[in-house]
Amino acid sequence: MSKYSIPVLFEKIKDVKSDDKRFTKVKIWLMHLGESFNGSYFDKDVVDKAIPTLGYIPIVGFMEKNSQNEDDFSDHRYVITKENNGKKQKYLGVSYGVITSSEDNNAHYEKRLCDDGQTRTFLVVEGLVWNMFEDSSNVMNRDVVKFHSMEIWDDDELIDGYEDENNIFHFTKFSFRAACILGKDYEPAMINSTIETQFTIKDFVKNIQSELNNKYSEFIKLTNKQGDNEMFNTNFTQTVLSNFKDISTIVRNHETARNRWGDNVSRYNAVDIQDDEVIVSDSCDSYRYYGFKFVIEGDKPVVNFSSKTRKKILFTDYDDKTPAPDGSFDLGEYTSKIEDTAFQKVKESEIAKDDIVKNYNKIKSKYDEYVKVEAERVNAELNEQKDNMFLHFEKLIGDSSDFISLKECKDKMTVEEIETKCSVIFSRKLRERSLNFNKSNGNTVVIGINEDNSDENNDFVETCYGNIPVNK
To answer: By the 8 A CB rule, do 66 and 184 touch?
Structure first.
């Protein structure tokens, strides 16, 4: 069993082929470098050595009802079994896909802006998800975004490391084992560790924020190089950054919470300052945003934690009367273009949806007519088989009351049931004829002789089944 799990993030790239619906190609944000919330630490050179072990490992999950009584993924699921030599842990996860070979999985590093305002370096890789499993496909299409965690082998020959004075485990050697999809009731060890199977506005906005932050940083560097024409007060900027650092420390040390591994971690992380409020993400509330009022007393920030207020992201027009220097980046214009592109994509999606609905309605009417005609054909064929079966037995049974009653129930019976019941009626009739014959003849067999002058053998035996010729 693996006791180490590293969160990852998945996003859908495209179907493998436009006409091949068996697979979905996914981009996996596998893990970030540095320290994670579960007390582990990864250096880049260590991760580089483990990349070759990614080829052909499975993408796994365990399905069950969640706390909202929905079909959902669960966690890293094991069951303890009893054997002759003791107890053994059995893995219950099911494979729903695979990370492709080293030649095809495109393993590389990318930077990503996380919800706590920090940009981290992630190892990303590509894989295939199989579309044949209806239960997992329904959940992924329903939720779009799922938490995710990477499993690592804990074999002594495949893993090594050391623990520092702060109880942080530094990996010096490891191998990947599987990628596990988590459900709504389970949070990953690392912030922003999810699996995303299609385009979402949330992920789109995060990417925009990351790119805007990078462009803004370039803009600051550019203006600071302009000497006497510098537009910003560097000392003032440094003071703001220093205050933000102090406030971030206060917020981070205010309250701790236990994560899924039982470790105490900071509940709040400062992500921004807006007017007289510090904006934080709350790890105990799915990293939603809240604001705390603060004041600066001398050089010391004082945060009022009783003023906690839920916050939402709001995009407003950028207002700056000062002309931008040549070669700088216009944030307002760039944001407007991005928003226009996003709304255009949404509009195109709505048009495509309307076309699909129209085509579906046309096909459905033709399908319903086909189903009706086919049902009538099958019913007519079945009635013909039933009538032929009754006709066959009518020659043997005649119009007895039981036989007539049976024909009236034709629609409630199958052909096989009709044959069985008619056979029973025929058997009863034969038995009655036998009893009546024996009774009238005293239970004796009558042998007769035809009195004619033909040369044929005219001796016969009279039975309940008729006269049977006797050979001499």
So the answer is: yes
Q: What DSSP state is assigned to residue 325?
A: P
Closest CA to 205 of 287, 124, 313, 286: 313
Take residue 332 and report the two structure tokens written for it. 């307002």
φ and ψ at residue 15, rounded to 5 degrees: -70, 150
Could you give the CA distance from residue 175 to residue 47 in angstroms, rounded to a whole number? 9
Question: What does 85-101 look like in DSSP terms, one character per residue?
Answer: TEEEEEE--EEEEEE--
Convert the pLDDT of each residue in 138-165 to its tens digit: 887 777 677 778 888 878 788 899 999 9
The residues pairing with 87 across neighbouring beta strands, listed in sequence order, are 82
Distance CA 204, CA 99 (A): 24
Whether 427 contacts 393, CB under 8 Å: no
Instruction: Return all residues near 452 (Cβ < 8 A) that are at least 6 apart.
Output: 458
Which of 22-26, 60-64, 210-214, 405-409 shows the lowest mean pLDDT across its residues?
Answer: 210-214
Grade residue 1 by pLDDT with cuts at 50, 70 and 90. Answer: very low
Supply 470's token pair.
């006797």
Q: Looking up tokens 């990349």, which residue turns up?
A: 51
How far apart, in whole angstroms, are the C-alpha atoms of residue 326 and residue 333?
15
| CA dist., res. 431 & res. 437, Å (int) | 10
Coil/strand/helix, residue 444: coil
Cα angle vertex 448, ends 442, 449, to 5°?
170
Distance CA(114)–CA(207), nearest Å, equals 10
By CB atoms closer than 10 A (0-12, 13-18, 19+), residue 47 is buried
Going by C-alpha positions, the residue among 394, 467, 391, 465 that lies closest to residue 432 is: 465
User: Among positive and negative, which fits the CA dihedral 282, 72, 148, 76?
Assistant: positive
pTM of the complete model: 0.41
* Contact (CB, 8 A) for 148 and 8: yes
pLDDT tens, position by position, 338-370: 667 777 777 787 788 778 888 888 788 788 888
Q: For the chain, percent helix, then strand, then coil, each to nearest 5?
A: 35, 35, 30
Q: Which residue has the tokens 């046309």?
A: 362
Taking alpha carbons only, the member of 332, 317, 339 closest to residue 216 is 332
Q: How many residues does the chain have?
A: 472
What Rg, from alpha-carbon coordinates, does the chain have?
40
